[in-house]
TrEMBL record, chain A:
Stretches that traverse the bilayer: none
Protein name per the record: Lactate utilization protein B
Keyword vocabulary terms for this entry: 4Fe-4S, Electron transport, Iron, Iron-sulfur, Metal-binding, Repeat, Transport
Pfam families: Fer4_8 (PF13183), LUD_dom (PF02589), LutB_C (PF11870)
Source organism of the structure: Oceanobacillus limi
4Fe-4S ferredoxin-type domain: residues covered: 309-376
Chain residues that bind [4Fe-4S] cluster 1: C312, C315, C318, C372
Lipid metabolism found in the keyword field: no
Residue ranges annotated for the LUD domain, each copy included: 70-294
Tree of life domain: Bacteria
Similarity-based family: Belongs to the LutB/YkgF family.
Automatic annotation (TrEMBL), chain B:
Name of the gene: lutC
Pfam family, one: LUD_dom
Name under which the protein is recorded: Lactate utilization protein C
Function (record text): Is involved in L-lactate degradation and allows cells to grow with lactate as the sole carbon source.
Stretches assigned to the LUD domain: 50-230
SUPFAM superfamilies: NagB/RpiA/CoA transferase-like
Native organism: Oceanobacillus limi
Range of residues in the leader sequence: none
Family: Belongs to the LutC/YkgG family.
Matches recorded under HAMAP family: LutC
One of the GO BP terms on file: lactate metabolic process
Amino acid sequence: MSVKIGNAPFHNRVQDGIENDFMRKAVSSAQGRFRSGRRNAAEELGDWEDWRTLGEEIRSHTLENIDFYLEKLSDAVSNRGGNVYFAQTAEEANQYIQDIVKRKEAKKIVKSKSMVTEEIGLNAALEEVGGEVVETDLGEWILQLDEDPPSHIVTPALHKDKGQIRETFSKKKGYEKTDDPEELALFAREQLREDFLSADVGITGCNFAVAESGAITLVTNEGNARLATALPDTQISVMGMERLVPTWEDLEVMVSLLTRAAVGQKLTSYVTSLTGTRLEGEVDGPEEFHLVILDNGRSKILGTEFQAALHCIRCAACINVCPVYRHVGGHAYGSIYPGPIGAVLTPLLDGYDDHKELPYASSLCAACTEACPVKIPLHEMLIRHRQIIVERENKAPKMEKLMMKGYAKWASSPAAYKLSTKVAKPGLKPWTEEETISNGPGPLKGWTNARDFPAPSKQSFRSWYKSRRKREESE
Amino acid sequence: MTIKKRERFLENLASNLGRPRVQKVERPQYSVSPQQNVYRGYSMDDLMDVLEKQCKAIHTDFINTDTTNLGKILLDTIEGYNGNAIITANDPRFQKYGIEDLFDSLRQDGKEVHVWNSEKGKDNQVFAESADVGITFSDITLAESGTVTLFNDKNNGRSISLLPKTYIALIPKETIVPRMTQAAQIIQKAYKEGHAVPSCISFITGPSNSADIEMNLIVGVHGPIKVTYIAF
Ligand code: SF4
């Protein structure tokens, strides 16, 4: 079990993405909206850079002492009547959860959106033991009905249009109304209410756990996570081991950063902080609560130069500014974690073998690093990945080798080179968008299909290339 | 309750960090604290203005009134929501502000007003599910984000602000603070003093919504579709 989705080679996945016109438009307009939302929210705060610094400091401190804080968290949860299970692998986590479902003879399980349960393939594991699993986040429900993987970590069904969604609803659920988004959502509300009311188990992820008091905090907008934790008698929350903060005061800073960076909201509609089981006399909330804390490859990253990748709070800001993501879409990454953070994290969690192309799916423009609310040096990590792949593992992806060979040939013929550098600026104009070339002619074409090629600057190509190399070397 | 497989897990983390397990960690002094500066020095009226403005951004109706007119405004709002079935928290503040009388008169008009009763168990949820309006007080109100904070307990079930189609939050002025920072401080202090943290703390910011279909904002998904805040 892993973060990997599908077996299609990288090249084909990229091609599929590029040929999917609706997806590209949807992604590009979503990126625009996400970006301006984040910018406005950041501007309003005034001292956004201080916020980022604070976010980074809190994350660094937490990860440096993660064993201590996890111990505290598990004690606190247990003191409040919860059970804690430390799972080294996806299999262990799934096994533990399967056992609960079997013991409870649970028939229906409602889930609120969680990337970590996608990561471990929990739905398949639950179905194995006869549980009916219902994804209740609107986007996830659409994908579940259509048996499609997510393409974005905040809005998972970003690649689908409302016509397709209407189709899916009518085919799978007998929906008869229009493709008006409000009507579609109302239908989902009615259908899923039944599921919430009859569910035996509710499963959630966890945005942040507070080590000190044992509170599991869920940051959502639709209300499905509240329903999934208020109504069923058993609640299981699964968290990546790094998703914790020391205290409530740290929590509020991280939540503020998350909601602003993710969607430009000051807070999402619901920030719900759950501690243990329901207390005596309470009607809502679970009588049985389990917290599953998952490693699944994360601990290998601790103590390495990539440790800061564990600071990620899954806000998707880096994805929303990424020019490569804009062109290829989420599925091209072949991982449930797409975009720059996916390109950094996926090879770390799942090895280079299947994902050696990912660090190359970047133009190294550094927009991701600038957007990241906890200052993870994403593009520098991508460069390190490339160095490791090339130097130590000698696994430079075929496409890169091929294209660079072609480029070498093209550039080594002086006449051809001169001609093309001279015409480069005007010649490339029609493809130039915000200083990157998104789909160039001739030798650049295959290459730019996979990543944006920086527009030739006014300085000569050769000296630009030289100084760029130097810059990379000095990093 | 049980904690399973903890030791090997934590040992592995410590060893990857290249040190023995740590027994004591002081929370460091961070180099900056921008969260403390937001709306510093704002008066109650200033914060009220912030809150009112923010409500527009979160698709929430906002009414600023006083204790004398609270009942009438609440009644108007309930009527505006076609409220025939109403569920409320079991909160002494309803008595304190004279709202219980309003509920009695609604009952006489043939409306159903259900006060959360922990002895009735799941029946509370059943009523809430078909209710038109849920009403609670806000325990802490965050001006910046337009958020009401509820300490849910046996008298204030989570369902009240969640299952009905509409939700009304009553906001006593003295509950208004600049932002989540102050709420976190209050909760942390209570925890340190040995009070049990509520099993559920709900920070609610307007109606439920989603951007999952083509990134269009849809107001009203699984939680309430319409929300009104009444400050007094
Ligand atoms: S790497 Fe940074 S920007 Fe990207 S999802 Fe994680 S926290 Fe957000």
